[in-house]
Model the fold of this input.
Amino acid sequence: MVQIDKTNNAIAGLDLYAVAERHQSGLVKAIIEEQIQAWKSNPYFLSASVHQSLDGVRVFTYSQWQPKFDHRSLPRSTIFGEFFPPDSLQLEVSASKSVSTEVEIVTGDRITHLAEFRMIPANQPEMVKRTTAELDRAMNNSPGLISATFHRSLDGTRMFNYGQWESKEAFEAILKQPGFNPDQPYWEGLARNEFHLYHVVHVARRI
Done:
């Protein structure tokens, strides 16, 4: 099981790709067949999952590694000769809530919402506080929300919310709520935000 929540002390690696829509499937195939296969032979590797955006122009991998290992130190795969290299970050889970006791990354029809918050490092501690407080409201007022897991980047410049939803319609309903509405964001004054919706298309675990 690929567990994603506060109780998991693994270091998370996030690799964000921007890609032309016509090349998205080729990029996904190359990541699975080349990069993740190479990662699986590394003794620090725990898991990796590949996500492709519904709009066709983004891909990201969410990987987990034993504590203190930096996956960015690994040799680059040959796939980067054909595609733009990813924006690669090291993360740790700062807060998580879910409808069940264990949060699992699985392939299937559920929707993954990845929200990115960019900030100056001085603002990250306050963002950690605000996002932790938002989890209770989100889980209590959002039918169809399976889990929400906030991560902070170790360099202090980003936070990410990895949310799992039963459907796209369930996610869109939350945008009408105060605090999530772009006109009244809870991150106002601290960060810039953008988000995209994805499907999980591949999951790999340490053998």
